[in-house]
């Protein structure tokens, strides 16, 4: 299981996945926005999204968990 964390304090501009979606390493799962720049957050492993911990419009802190991915079974 792997948590995907925010790389900086930012607004959540777009959540690209939902729970139960299958993702591959490198897929963009969340896009953050800070100082009018878009920061894509990628899946670090192949798997299934088991939890989405944030929503579009939320403000997140660096290190805050955005979503969780588990290995496909």
TrEMBL record:
It comes from the Bacteria. This is Acetyl-CoA carboxylase biotin carboxyl carrier protein subunit. Keywords: Biotin. Residues 1-70 form the Lipoyl-binding domain. It comes from Salinibacillus aidingensis. It holds the Pfam family Biotin_lipoyl. SUPFAM superfamilies: Single hybrid motif.
């Amino acid at each position: 299981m792997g948590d995907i964390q925010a790389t900086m304090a930012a607004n959540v501009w777009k959540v690209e996945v939902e729970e139960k979606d299958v993702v591959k390493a490198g897929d963009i799962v969340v896009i953050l926005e800070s100082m009018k720049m878009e920061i894509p957050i990628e899946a670090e492993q192949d798997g299934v999204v088991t939890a989405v911990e944030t929503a579009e419009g939320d403000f997140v802190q660096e290190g805050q968990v955005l979503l969780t991915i588990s290995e496909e079974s």
